[in-house]
Amino acid sequence: MSAVNDTKFQFAVFLLTGILGKEDVYLWIAIPFCLVYVTSIVGNSVILFIIKTDPVLHDPMYIFLSMLAVTDLGLSITTIPTILGIFLFNSREISLDACFAQLFFIHLLQGMESSFLLLMAFDRFIAICNPLRYASILTPPRLVKMGLLCVLRGVAVVLPLPFLLKRFQYCRANVLSHSYCVHQEVMKLACADITVNNIYGLSTALLTMGLDSLLIFLSYVIILKTVLNVASHEECLRALNTCVSHLCAVLLFYIPEIGLSVIHRFGNSSSHLLQFVLGYFYLLVPPLMNPIVYSVKSKHLRARIIRVLNK
């Protein structure tokens, strides 16, 4: 241990992990990962392009969707280098600073996505429960302020994480169980008391994503109550149909995110397979599926995408 105390770190890199036992078929495994990333980037870019160039889609609902698309693009770009680096080039090493930077952006973008999903729930809440004041409440300047507030909240919450990790000496095995860096896992490699990191990480998760998910749930309880009071069955279904795509995005985001957080902190060796599946699911699937779900469920967006593709 004396050698460790003489230097800040015992090793200069972390080793990322791909799919254990499948190293001989990494090139084939890389193909679906490449397809997922290309589809995610193209899909979210198309969403952004259509919303930006079509004035008809400059409504609050689509502005919030564009914020979600930017976040999904950021998540894809943040994780592409390390995941494809492993499967294409068997490059497992990542420097400590690069690892800290990656986990900062992953957690920041995850927090922002949670915030934007909450804003989208608020949009549906106002549209269904108070439609006459919809335009006066969700004005363009207010939308900008809400978006900036979400970004600032994410930065304020996530910024301490790299500094909390940088103060540690890392004297344990430097192998991570994912193809990317996250705070919950990196902190376990420290040869010091990680109580502060554990408490801060859990507290921020509860006060951001936990609070957001609770508010989203409450908003839909009120929405459901309001919709059930609508006399016409057809109007009831039409109102609920506008929420389907958002509900799909919420479930795709929160279920694996919460599951992975619980496994990281309270799981054991028997949960490695589930941890592996959720670890890839929560970063790869939402950016892939969100553009598809919204394109299918929003007839205005779908019509404009078809019009652009036919030109």
Plain-language structure description:
The protein has about 300 residues and is mostly helical. The protein has a single domain, classed as Rhodopsin 7-helix transmembrane proteins (Rhopdopsin 7-helix transmembrane proteins), CATH 1.20.1070. The protein contains 13 helices and 2 strands; from the N terminus they run αβααβαααααααααα. Helix 2 packs parallel to helix 12, helix 3 packs antiparallel against helix 4 and helix 12 crosses helix 13. The longest helix has about 35 residues. It is globular and about 65 Å long.
How is the topology of this model organized?
Layout: H1 2-6, E1 13-15, H2 26-53, H3 60-89, E2 93-95, H4 96-129, H5 134-137, H6 140-158, H7 160-166, H8 183-186, H9 195-228, H10 233-241, H11 244-266, H12 272-297, H13 299-310
Question: Which keywords apply here?
Answer:
76% helix, 311 residues, mainly alpha, 13 helices, globular, 2% strand, disordered N terminus, Rhopdopsin 7-helix transmembrane proteins, two-stranded antiparallel ribbon
Brief rundown of the structure:
By secondary structure, this protein is an all-alpha fold.
The CATH architecture can be given as Up-down Bundle
Supply the helix-strand structural class.
Answer: mainly alpha
User: Any idea how many domains?
Assistant: 1
Average pLDDT number: 87
What is the beta-strand fraction?
A: under 5%
Output the strand order for the largest sheet.
1-2
| Overall strand count | 2
The N- and C-terminal alpha carbons lie at a distance of: 67 Å
Poorly predicted sequence stretches spanning 5 or more consecutive residues: 1-9
At CATH level 3, the topology is Rhopdopsin 7-helix transmembrane proteins
CATH class identity: Mainly Alpha
